[in-house]
């Protein structure tokens, strides 16, 4: 599926959970977990960020980077970030998956399904979203009723706060026992 790109947006300065992208779960950062899963199914993985530190780490991991300009480095809708990143994708890309680092339980098999159809990984806000490049450009994530299927994930924690992070760590700890 060389015509699918996975875009991973990363901020260096999360307001609710500082350095969120560096938080470790089972010995890997949320950033590394997302990139490793994305790279296991696509050679077209892009990290978009306004942070040079994030972009340098992404390059070290062998993924492509897209520098976000001023204005997109604040609280903006994710579809705006994706629409900006699409301008840097090769012309042959026709499907784009937005993958968030905040859910370390995103399953690779769910991402493989997402490579084939419009869908979202269901958490309380979505772990990933998949649409054609044209749909992202035309309307972002708006007006998707009836046009986007759902992949219901077995387990999910959207890590935005210290409590969310602790819950994710507990889930993994319980699984090991």
What is the chains' assembly state?
Answer: single chain
Beta-strand percentage? 15-25%
Q: In CATH, what is the class? A: Alpha Beta
Q: Write out the CATH superfamily name.
A: Spore Coat Polysaccharide Biosynthesis Protein SpsA, Chain A
User: What does the overall shape look like?
Assistant: globular
CATH topology: Spore Coat Polysaccharide Biosynthesis Protein SpsA, Chain A
Structural class from helices and strands?
A: alpha/beta
Portion in helices: 25-40%
Low-confidence parts: none
Radius of gyration: 15 Å
Would you kindly provide a written description of the structure presented here, covering whatever features stand out?
This protein is α/β, with parallel strands linked by helices. It has a single domain, classed as Spore Coat Polysaccharide Biosynthesis Protein SpsA, Chain A (Alpha-Beta Complex), CATH 3.90.550.10. Helices cover 32% and strands 21% of the residues. It is built from six helices and nine strands, in the order E-E-E-H-E-H-E-H-E-H-E-E-H-E-H. A seven-stranded mixed β-sheet has the order 5-4-1-6-8-7-9, sandwiched between helices. It has a two-stranded antiparallel sheet with strand order 2-3. The longest helix has 15 residues, at 162-176. The chain is globular, with a radius of gyration of 15 Å.
């Amino acid at each position: 599926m060389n015509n699918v790109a996975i875009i991973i947006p990363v901020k260096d300065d999360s307001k609710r959970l500082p350095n969120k992208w560096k938080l470790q779960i089972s010995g890997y950062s949320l950033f590394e977990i997302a990139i490793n899963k994305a790279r296991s199914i696509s050679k077209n993985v892009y990290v978009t960020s306004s942070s040079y530190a994030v972009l340098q780490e992404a390059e070290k991991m062998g993924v492509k980077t897209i520098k976000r300009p001023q204005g997109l480095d604040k609280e903006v809708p994710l579809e705006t970030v994706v629409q900006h990143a699409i301008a840097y994708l090769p012309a042959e890309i026709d499907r784009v998956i937005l993958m968030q680092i905040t859910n370390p339980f995103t399953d690779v098999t769910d991402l493989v399904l997402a490579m084939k159809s419009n869908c979202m990984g269901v958490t309380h806000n979505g772990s990933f979203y998949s649409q054609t490049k044209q749909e992202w450009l035309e309307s972002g994530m708006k007006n998707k009723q009836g046009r986007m299927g759902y992949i219901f994930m077995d387990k999910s924690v959207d890590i935005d706060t210290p409590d969310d992070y602790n819950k994710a760590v507990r889930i993994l700890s319980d699984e090991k026992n």
